[in-house]
Amino acid sequence: MASPSTNDTIEQTVTGLGYDLVDIERTTGGLLRVTIDMPYTPEAEQFINAEDCEKVTRQLQFVLEVEGAEYSRLEVSSPGIDRPLKTEKDFERFLGELIDITLKAPIGVAAVAGSTISANQKKFRGTLERPEQAGNGATTWQIVWSDEPAGKPGQKISKKRTPPPLQAMGFMLDEIQQARLAPVVDFKGRKAKAAKNAPAAEQQPDN
Predict the structure, then answer these.
(1) Three-state SS for 103?
(2) pLDDT at 179 over 60
(3) Strands of 201-203's sheet, edge to edge?
(4) How far apart are CA 83 and CA 171, in angstroms?
(5) Burial letters 1-16, b for 16+ CB under 10 A, else e
(6) Where are the beta strands (DSSP E) in 134-199?
(7) CA angle 10, 36, 144 (to 5 degrees)
(8) CB atoms near residue 153 (< 10 Å)
């Protein structure tokens, strides 16, 4: 990870240009990767394009040079279809979406009869919901999924068949090690984010 001061500079620069900072990553090869997104507007959601990435890249190159930040390459990119979810704001934005979460610790309960949940399970995929407020004022979230196996192409499903019950797991944000949108391509909606997201803009610092 970049240093706290560099992180602050990057965040101030990105938000000052009117974008949301999603993530900052520094790799062992000296690559400084900055992920940005458009601010959330439910009425008319917009997507990052190549011009946005180039605009942020140019400004970051300038401010990081002034600060004397060390890096070999700078990459500014859109979040992609597996966008990380890190803040309360992120979870509110993607309510109703299919997400992947990894817990910091195994769920620690006995397996539920008829389900695939086990006591040592940490990774889950399901639809994000927000059922209630916890007693301490913090938000409790949950994901919901079905253990029904995916049907084969062309397979006919009887209308009389009783589907398996939905499974649900509640969690608090501080219990999450990692959360991301499930990388599902759906060209009818998010839903076309895979098609709309632009490639990263990558630059090297001037010597």
Answers:
(1) strand
(2) yes
(3) 20-26, 31-37, 73-77, 201-203
(4) 19
(5) ebeeebeebbeebbee
(6) 139-146, 166-171, 176-181
(7) 125
(8) 5
The owner of tokens 């509640």 is: 170
- Least confident residue range of 42-46, 54-58, 126-130, 181-185: 42-46
Kindly state the helix (H) or strand (E) to which residue 51 belongs, with its residue range: helix 50-67
Residue corresponding to tokens 């040079």:
65
Q: Which two tokens stand for residue 79?
A: 């979040």
**Residue 193 and residue 47: Cα distance in Å, rounded?**
7
Residue 38 CB-density burial (10 A; 0-12 exposed, 13-18 middle, 19+ buried)? middle
**Each residue's pLDDT tens digit, 140-163:** 899 998 876 655 566 565 566 666
DSSP 14: H
Joined tokens for residue 200: 């990263």
pLDDT score of 28 more than 90: no
User: CA geometry: angle at 122 spanning 116 and 127, to 5°?
Assistant: 70
Are the beta carbons of 74 and 202 closer than 8 angstroms? yes
Model-level pTM? Answer: 0.72
Q: Give the start-to-end residue ranges of the domains of the chain.
A: 4-81+186-203, 88-181
CATH architecture, range 4-81+186-203: 2-Layer Sandwich (3.30)
The pLDDT of residue 59 is above 80: yes
pLDDT at residue 26, rounded to an integer? 92
Maximal CA-CA distance, the chain = 70
Q: Which of 36-40, 97-101, 111-115 has the lowest mean pLDDT?
A: 111-115
